[in-house]
Structures are given as C-alpha cells and as structure tokens.
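Feature request, filed as a ticket because there's no other form

It would be nice if the structure record came with a short human-readable summary line next to the tokens. Right now we just get the raw output. Example of a typical job, pasted below so the devs can see what we mean:
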Amino acid sequence: MMIIAIAPSFFFKPPKPAPRPVAGADTGAAGTQAPTAAVPAAAAPTAAAPLTRMPVETVTVSGPLYQYGISTRGGAILQATLNRYRALNPDDRGQPVRLIRPGGAINQLAVVVGQDTLRLAD
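Raw output as currently delivered:
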C-alpha cells in the first residue's frame, strides 16, 4: 500500500515555474520588449561609484497635547512626547513623558516583495 502512495512522487515531477520578466523590462501584449532609451556611459551607474546619502533629518509634528519627531529616511518615529503628562522616572521627574527612549525608534518602514525586504531607512 505504501508503494502506491510514494511511487508517483518519483515519476511525476512538479512543473518548473515560468521565467520571471527582467526588472525594468516593459513587455507589450505580444511579449516583445519595448524599446528603451540609451543611457550615456557617463550617466550609467557603476559598481565602483560611491553611493551618496542625503542627511537624515527629523520632522517635528506638534500640537497642544503631543510632539512627534519623524525621520525623513524611512519614516520611523524617533520621538513621541505627551505634553500634559509628567514623567515619574527620577531622572526626568517633572518633564513631559517621552514614550520613546533617546536613540530608539518605532514604525520603521520596509517594503516586502516575496522573500526580499527593502528597508526604507537604507
């Protein structure tokens, strides 16, 4: 009986998946690749060219009850302060409550496609 359950897996293999289209290739209805503009050699990125990053800035959003600091790289919340509540921590007694410790962050955004993850902070 076990042979009937196991034997077909040796003879019938699952079909191979269809090849994925190349990223950036725009295929038309007929399956032909759309023409692309030539990129000059000076503008083409190379592996040796260093990446330049924009400086990280913090955008402050505030109101009478709150104050938030949001990173321009990745949209992470770096600071959350509640203005009407006072801290009970002996080091910060009397100051407004900070919900995120200095140097911490929450809600760091990322894009997930299949098994790949792209952190927006990068």
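Something like this underneath would help us a lot:
The helical segments are 2-11.
The first helix runs from residue 2 to 11.
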